[in-house]
Amino acid sequence: MTTTESDWTDVARTLGRGGNMLRGTIYHTPFPRGDLHVVSDGIVITPALALGTHVSFVRYADGSTMVMGDVAVTEDELQQVSDAFQSHGIALTALHKHLLAQTPDIWWTHVHGHGYDEVALARGLRAGFDLTGTPPAVPTGPPIPNDLDIAGIEAALGAKGSPDGVVYKVVFARRETICDGHLVLPPGLGSTSAFIFQPLGGGRAALSGDCVMLAEEVQDVLGALRRGGIKLVELHNHHLTENPRLFFTHFWAVGDAVELARGLRPAVDATNVVPAG
């Protein structure tokens, strides 16, 4: 169903912060881990690059609500947060890394819930979040200028992106209709490829993100990333009951931002995606 931010007031109150609408059907709320000082490959990771928790709510015509998300937790937080989610009916659907050799160790757990009480779903998420060091929400400021060649990145990838604080992000969505169990997912929910560039100065960037694939696309994508000098981090699923079956690979690289984008383009072309806009 199409909704507006005002339709999610009780969810926002329960989560302790407001969210925003994506494409008229997805109520999305970020929880950046600004409390963490994480270093990977000698680079201090900004929350927007790879330290964010995100949850998305969708309402269906039968009055039910689905929520899914990706939660960043420290290794010390992981077990108690997992217990809290499960005790509140929030399912865990994946557990993995987004970064190589990071300090401290950070894990990402994918969560999923479906029911007729959206506030209860939000309460279950909040029970887990409250066991982490996730800081309170802060007002969003204007995009921070950076020295990345945005036009070059977009030309290389064949898509427009958008700033997110200090980073620049380009997102693609699967063309297929994706179902989770018997529920059709709105375009882009749980089925996107995201390429995030953190500027390092001199046109260089740290690149982090993930690429969504069908099984028959996986080897072509992995090969394309490696030929582009991009390091593989994970190959895994985010869902349990989706159709068609989706696989995700997380990756990492440091270098000239436009050259990194050129290295990503063959991987994009090997998948059935369109720019998410």
Mean pLDDT across residues: 96
What is the ordering of alpha helices and beta strands?
HEEEEHEEHEEEHHEEEEEEHEEEHE
Count the beta strands.
Answer: 19
Radius of gyration from the alpha-carbon trace, in angstroms: 18 Å
Indicate the overall shape: globular
Structural class by SSE content: alpha+beta
Distance between the termini: 20 Å
Helix tally equals: 7
Largest sheet: 7 strands, antiparallel
What is the beta-strand fraction? 35-45%
Low-confidence stretches: none
Helix % is 10-25%
Q: Can you put this structure into words, describing what you see?
A:
The protein has 277 residues and is an alpha+beta fold. Helix content is 24%, strand content 38%. The strands form four sheets. Strands 10, 11, 14, 15, 16, 18 and 19 form a seven-stranded antiparallel β-sheet that branches. A six-stranded antiparallel β-sheet has the order 1-2-5-6-9-7. A hairpin with a 2-residue loop joins strand 14 (192-201) and strand 15. It starts with 8 loop residues before the first helix and ends with a strand.
